Amino acid sequence: VLYLFCAALTEHKILFLSSSYQRLTDACRALLALMFPLKYSFTYVPILPAQLLEVLSTPTPFIIGVHSIFQSETQELLDVVIADLDGGTVNVPECVHISLLPEPLLQQTREALSMVLDPELEVADLAFPPSTISASSLKMQDKEIRAVFLRLFAQLLQGYRWCLHIIRIHPEPVIRFHKVS
Fold first, then answer.
1. Starting at the edge strand that comes first in sequence, how are the strands of the sheet with 43-45 ordered?
2. Of the chain's two ends, which shows fewer C-beta atoms within 10 Å, N or C?
3. CA distance 143 to 24
4. pTM above 0.70?
5. Which ranges carry the UDENN domain (predicted)?
């Protein structure tokens, strides 16, 4: 999930494959939900019809879901990150470099997600674990996962104001984002 999340943030092509249309839609929507508060502004097609498979050759980034019976047509795509939802694999081609999160944030996010998805891990090594460990309901688990990613964005974007430069040569000041900073 973190590979797909980073691929979406760095504007790569992402293709979901599954034999279930519901799973394709849910996976595409979930990836967009994890990007909150950012909005995905490229091509987004949760279920791509068979007649439009040539869209996968477009040079622009996308998040697209395709039924797994068309998997043979997707094999020649060289610059597309392919997530097989039925097999549970993510295939990143050699020519695609996905920039992952900076290291302290990556490890913290992995740990936080593992604690949300498997809360027993937190007390697994204790000599005297508590008698009751309650797993969160699905609704609460969804909120906890969203909180992990929202906290990640807050940590990633802290200090962004140092990158804003005010240009005062115009009658009204202009704020410009200094990309290198």
1. 43-45, 62-67, 13-18, 80-84, 89-91
2. C
3. 21
4. yes
5. 1-181
| CB half-sphere exposure, 144, CA atoms < 13 A | 16
159 HSE (CA, 13 A, CB side):
3
pLDDT in tens, the chain (181 residues): 999 999 999 999 999 999 999 999 999 999 999 998 889 999 999 999 989 999 898 999 999 999 999 888 888 888 899 999 999 999 998 888 988 888 899 999 999 988 888 877 666 666 666 666 666 688 888 888 989 999 998 888 887 788 888 888 777 888 887 777 7
Q: Give domain limits for the chain.
A: 1-91, 101-120+135-180
Point out which residues pair with 164 in neighbouring strands.
177
